[in-house]
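Progress against Task 2.4 (sequence-to-structure conversion) is shown through the following example record, which the project officer requested during the mid-term review.
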Amino acid sequence: MRILFFTLSCGLLLNTSFAEQPIAQKGELLFSDDFERNELGENWKIIIPAFEIKEGALFGLQARDDHGSVGRVYVPMKDLVAEFRFNLAGSKTFNVVFDDKNHKGSHAGHICRVAVTPTQVRLGDDKEGIMRNDIFEMRRDPNLKAKADEMIKGRGTTVKTTVELDQWHSMKIEIVGDLMQVSLNDVILGQLKSPGIAHLTKESLHFTVNGTGVLFDDLMIWKAQ
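Structure tokens generated for the chain above:
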């Protein structure tokens, strides 16, 4: 994995300790799945098809034109460490999203996310950023989009990198308070500090897949210490 350069916004922290250490220690194991079976099982809720178990991994592909496929696991959490492996096996993008369906202030209860493409990884505060109800509606109005874009400054940051297709990669997401840090292939890529991330309950984690296929494996979620 080759890091090309960083795109900085006011939401990204960069300091001498940033590139050297995690922001959390792993505590209680909240969830794990190695997908070594034939059926999805009751833990996974497929909100938008299609997901299946394929050769010992979770395979998702987009089945609707208007939205990516969504596979969700319900794990109440706040501060956390999540790790998994993934393979862009046809698709060029997917999202890892933390939600709280009981939060009515953002579209679909979205709290925060990490979005992956072959050329970049984006960290986003959905609760106070692009998914906040008022901002979400403003961005759909061409006359208000510029104002909405001003309102979301500091609520997301993008890190330019290289994610090879048809190869397995590892990802680690750490959330402590209002700080989220992401590592790719054991290299810390970036941090986002934004108030929505500190939401008291992330009720679930889901993968959203666009395109013709992403493989996921060895998902583990710990309570952060």
